[in-house]
Amino acid sequence: MTITLTNINSGYDGFSLKNISLTIEQGKFTALIGPNGCGKSTLLKTIGRIIKAKSGSVKIGDLNVLRERPKKVAQTIAYLPQNPEIPSAINVEQLVSYGRAPYQSVLGIKSARDVELVDEAIHLASINDLRKNNVAELSGGQRQRAFIAMALAQDTPYIMLDEPTTFLDIKYQYEVLDLIKKLTLKGHTCIVVLHDIAQAARYADNIVVMREGEIYAQGSPEEIVTQKMVQNVYDLDCLIHPDPITNTPIISPKLSN
After folding, report:
1. pLDDT of 257 strictly over 70
2. Whether pTM exceeds 0.90
3. Among 56, 82, 184, 185, which is most exposed with the fewest C-beta within 10 angstroms?
C-alpha cells in the first residue's frame, strides 16, 4: 500500500510545512533531499505522528495514521531519528530487542516470535558477530547498522530513517545505504532523509526535493537531478553528468571566477 499525504500542514514555532501532498510508492526507496531547514525531518516526523499535523491527512491504504492508536502506528511504521540516543551499558542484542516493544505487554515478556525476529534483524544487518558487544563501543557504521536492526525487529512494512549516514566515514555510508537498498528489495518501503544528492540519485527509486517547507519536485533521479533544480533549490551553479559506474546523475559545481 502506498503512503498518501493530502494537504498536510505541520511544524512548530518558526517553521511550518505548507499544504504537502505526496504519494510514496510501496516497496521503493524514497529519498528526501533539500537544503538544511527545508522541512525534511519535519515531514518524516509528521508521517510517523511524532509531530502532530495541524491539518490534512496521512493514509496507508485505509489506515488513517493521524487518527490511529500509537501502538498500531508503531506496528506499521518504524522511525529512526538522526543521532539516536545510546542507552547506557547495553549490548547489541538488547538494543535490537527494543524494536519488539510495540508488540509486548506492559510486563515486557518476550515471545518466541520476538526472539525469532530479533535474530532475523541481526542477521540481515550483518552484525551477528557483534550481538554481545556494548553498543557504546561500536564504530559509527556498526552502531548505525545496530539501530537499523532495531527498526527491522519492529517488523513494519514501512521504515523511515533521518540522515542515517550523517557523521559516518564514506565506507560506512555506503554500507548503510546498501543495507537500506537491500530492505526495499525484500519488500520494505524506505523513506530516507539524505544530504548527498549523488548518493540519493544512486540508491533511491524516487526523490522528493523540498524547499522552504514545500515540495519543489518529485520523481526519478534522472528527472529530478538537473542543473535547474540544483540552482533553484541549492543556489549552486553546476554541471550534471553520469556516474561512470551506475550512470546515475552526479553534480560538479562550477568554479567561481
Report:
1. no
2. yes
3. 185
